[in-house]
Write a structure and sequence with these properties.
Length: 64
């Protein structure tokens, strides 16, 4: 019999599934400001929220 600790072995969840589970189970939203599924106003809202909570992104700070 082979024992593997929880979290080791088996199937890895793809990143979209991890994001979906995080939202559904914990109310945590992980979204890219560049996600093509969002409209421009939605992407802009995500960008503004990110800047309000965490400051400008490094790419933007360096003079993008």
């Amino acid at each position: 019999m082979r024992f593997t600790p929880k979290g080791y072995g088996g199937q890895r969840r793809d990143p979209e599934q991890v994001k979906r589970d995080g939202w559904q189970e914990q109310g945590v939203l992980a979204v890219s400001a560049d996600d093509d599924r969002l409209t421009w106003p939605e992407r802009e809202l995500v960008r503004q929220l990110g800047e309000k909570l965490y400051g400008q992104r490094q790419k933007e700070v360096q003079g993008d």
